[in-house]
Amino acid sequence: MKKTLWSVCTLTLLASLILLGRPATARAAEGDDQARLERLEHRLNELAQRQEQMMNRLGAPAERRSQMASPEGSPLRPQLAPPAAPPTAPAAPAANRACKGLHDLLGMLFFIGMICNILLAVWIFTDIRKRGEGSGIFIVLALFAGIPSAIIYALTRIGDRKP
Questions:
Q1: Largest CA distance in the chain
Q2: Across the strands, what pairs with 75?
Q3: Among 1, 27, 40, 117, which is disulfide-ready with 146 (CB 3.0 to 4.6 Å)?
Q4: Cβ atoms within 10 Å of 117's Cβ, excluding its own
């Protein structure tokens, strides 16, 4: 049984490495690259023209507009000024603090629950090893389900006692 299980696990691992390890095609045909590059340039020019129109509508200064166009007249990417520092926000309202506190509490409870599940799995593992009988499925169940699986294991263990 163990030999069969190991061979199935090995085959599964090998198959996943083959399927996930295949190299993806890195390049398309050269003609496709050229056409794509032309479409991107055309789209960039359209966006630059729209930006120029928006700047004209908003009444941007002429020197700013002249910086956006190259000497040949084809638009370039504008040199944007660094964004202004955001205004300092007032202290968080009580609702935001309460929400953060609840989030922290739930995170701590989740962490404690995971620790308990791990400790229950260790207990089940050592008990199975000590008794020399039992199923390893209870270890996996203890990691995911925690206390209910430990109760089921304990009931199974009590039922296995020989009179």
A1: 98
A2: 69
A3: 117
A4: 19
Long-range contacts of 77-84 (CB under 8 A, 24+ apart): 77/48, 78/51
Contact 140, 152 (CB under 8 A): no
In this structure, are 72 and 111 located in the same domain?
A: no
Our CA dihedral for 97, 100, 106, 112, rounded to 10 degrees, sits at -100
| CB atoms inside a 10 Å sphere around CB 35 | 12
For residue range 109-133, list pLDDT tens digits in order.
Answer: 999 999 999 999 998 889 888 888 7
CA distance 97 to 103: 10
Spatial separation of the C-alpha atoms in residues 124 and 135, rounded to whole Å: 10
Same domain, 111 and 73: no
- The whole-angstrom separation of Cα 96 and Cα 103 is 10
Tens-place pLDDT, residues 83-115: 666 666 555 677 888 888 899 999 999 999 999
| pTM of the shown model | 0.40
Domain of residue 44, residue span: 32-77
Query: Cα separation of 95 and 65, whole Å?
Result: 46
